Amino acid sequence: MASIKDAFEESFHDNNATLKYIIFAIPLYYCLDKYLNGTNPALFWGLTFLLYLFYFGFLLECTANVRNSKERVLPSFNIFKTIWAGLKGSVALGPSIAINSILAAIVYKFAANYVNDPTTLNVYKFLISGLFSSFILTGYLCYAKEFKISDAYNLKVIYNTSVDVFIAVLFMIPQIWLANAILIVPVTYIIWIFFGIPHPIATFYWCMVFVFNLALCGHYLAQIGYEAIGTKENKDKIL
């Protein structure tokens, strides 16, 4: 079973982990600083797009490293390689995200025509969103193993494992929240006592926690991928 403890420890103790979290948090802190100080909107959105590519590539590489049993969790210091991974991953998964989002909206609208009770409709909305999100997540896990675009649309794997992925992610979410509470609350409290909030030190620390969260989620998702997809693939090969 996927372990948040393993994900936390291995992401925390990875080679040069602290240095990487500091360095990789700098662009996010810089972008936030520019936003808070009312920088040029075009510059801000340009930086935001580059940050998205970098951090999405970071997440993908963390998942791939763990999924392929490499000795490290985090990507290398080569930010251009990570940005490229984010760009390629966006091209690979973009159609899946768009198609599943549209289908989810259509199904929800259809359900809304026949369900009048708001509570029941919200339950349907959750189930519909979860179902189509699981298709996207399963495609992500398939793609992250070898970075082959065709793997993101392996319909047989998506059909057979998406429910397992969805259930595993539901268990992941509260564990991630707990890990964040452990990381954020004590340190933020100390910073608040000595420096007050908001403060640049607190903001930079939160940026580091964000990067750590990407590694944590990438690691945990890789475990889900191995258990939900890899195990079934191995059984099929044996049979």
Key attributes of the depicted protein:
single chain; 239 residues; mainly alpha; 7 helices; 0% strand
Structure description:
This protein is mainly alpha-helical. Helices cover 83% and strands 0% of the residues. The chain contains seven helices and no strands. Helix 5 packs across helix 6. The longest helix has 40 residues. The two termini are 23 Å apart. The model has no long low-confidence stretch (mean pLDDT 89).
Order of helices and strands: HHHHHHH
Judged by helices, strands and strand pairing, the structural class is mainly alpha
Taking the sheet with the most strands, its summary is: none
Distance between the termini: 23 Å
Tell the overall outline: globular
- Low-pLDDT stretches are none
The count of β-strands is: 0
Fraction in beta strands: under 5%
Total number of helical segments?
7
What is the residue-mean pLDDT, rounded to a whole number?
Answer: 89
What is the CA-based Rg, rounded? 20 Å
Helix content: over 70%
What's a quick, concise take on this entry?
The protein is an all-alpha fold. The protein contains seven helices and no strands.
